[in-house]
Fold:
Amino acid sequence: MEYFYIDVQDEYREDHTKLCVYILDGDVEHSHLLKFALSASNFGDVTVMFCVSMTQPWAIMDSLTSWANILQNHVDDLKITPEERKEFKRKVIKRWQDYMEPGDEMEAAAAQLRRSATVSTSVIADDSVVSLPLPENVLTSNLGLDIVVVVTKTDFMTNLEKEHDYKDEHFDFIQQSIRRFCLHYGASLFYTSVKEEKNCDLLYKHLVHRIYGFPFHTPALVVEKDAVFIPFGWDKEKKISILHENMTTMKPDDFFSDVIVKPVVRRPIQRDIEIQAEDDQVFFARQQSLLNQQLPAQGASRQVGDESPMRAPSAVQKTADRRLSGSPGIQQSPLGTPKKIDSAKGVGTSEGVLANFFNSLLSKKTGSPSVGGSPKLAGEVGNASPGISTSVKTARSDAAAELDRMTRSKKPAQTTSPSASCSNPPPTPPASS
Structure:
């Protein structure tokens, strides 16, 4: 249950007060809290308001009927004497009979004359006056309370027409059902919409009129289907029967649930899986075992495959001996001195040796300091790459071996050609006589 208050200002006397408002939750399980809002001490000063929503029209009558029964049981349990109950009910009946529509004084005067002509005001032992009989189906469930029925969110009617194919006859059927309920319990009826600002101010004026006696001169409103106002004492069965003219596919006496059917929303069945919490120690032990399995694998991957490129091992440079032994066409003796290169094999490898030699010269020229350079810079370059001298020596030895082979191959050719010429001298011409 919630509690609010409404500021009430009297424009004529410049006085103000606060109207207490108790809001009970719509769940029936909270009906026991009704005792804090309605008691025997404040019974005559309370106005009960039933609120239903047009967003779910199929639940309107069930909600009104169930809460009316709860209110009936609560009133019966209050510690109120039978004389007080009878007096409260008599006031409700008198207010119904004394209703005068604003602006129609002539009709009110005629009604008063008819009442005086048809009723014999006979005085009984307790000096009370016999009242007129009530119309049919009016105040059949008189609780002795001032009751207001409010249908909220009437702007949702347009959605009902689009989504659920509601027509005017459906809304007329809903209205005539609610108005019959109001007749039975003696309640006023309001259709309100905060979004469209319909009948909200009118409801406030009606409440302060009923509770504080402020003037109220608004007649019944039945033209707009989403802004209906039926004051207490105005409605009758004959007026409700006007709505029956638009009902073609239904009858006024049909069951409400048969005409205003709750739409079937087909949704996939979702079963809520019950989740059982795992013990903390078991969870921690399982996580510890997983961590222990992942740590060795991560360490090995970091040692083998995840090395940084900056720390990658540099290429191993061959020494002079390895270069001589690895070069094709060159055989090395156990003492390390190169042997004579085979002429058949040396023809193909001489070009590679010469290429290595000239490359070493180029690298030496680029690595050595310029003529005008500082000796400190040259020393730094030499210290920075100590392997350059080794490669130069290796290239020089390869070049020397190649040159030695080439010179040796040319000398035998030069010595054999003269001997061949001497062994086969040209013939001498004959002497002339």
